[in-house]
Amino acid sequence: MTVTLWQRARPLHAFGEIWCQELTDLRQLAGLRARLRTSMTGSPVVERPERDHWSERLVLIADELTSNALRHGGAPVAAVLGRRGDDWLIAVRDAAASVAPTPAQGRDPGLGGFGLYLVADLSSSHGWYVEPGTKTAWAVVDGSS
């Protein structure tokens, strides 16, 4: 039995965009993580780990999706933060419209490539879709949990 972990789908609900950030290099990920934390908790660093664990899930998801886009996608790469009530959306767009997000299979875990499994485990929903010339991978985290 084959299970499709990453299905082609858009988020189920519309999210209000908080900001969009273009990235061109992996070195920009630290700034993206700090911006996410500040947007969600008011601080660029983890101040209350017992309370802010939900936001760190979204930070880790954003890091995985954005690093994949920068490594395997194509420029331009953009990360979008959105919110709908307690739900937070991270959507990462790249120019590799013909390359679907594909979790690693049959590979030694020491070789990496398992970030998409992590994203699936940490999010309440996730997927990807294509628009002319772009692919967007997205995930949602519930901020109330």
UniProtKB/TrEMBL annotation:
Transmembrane segments: none annotated. InterPro entries: Anti-sigma-factor_SerPK, HATPase_C_sf. The keyword ATP-binding applies. Keywords: ATP-binding, Nucleotide-binding. The keyword Nucleus does not apply. One of its GO terms (molecular function) is ATP binding. It comes from the Bacteria. PANTHER family: ANTI-SIGMA-F FACTOR RSBW, ANTI-SIGMA-F FACTOR RSBW-RELATED. This is ATP-binding protein.
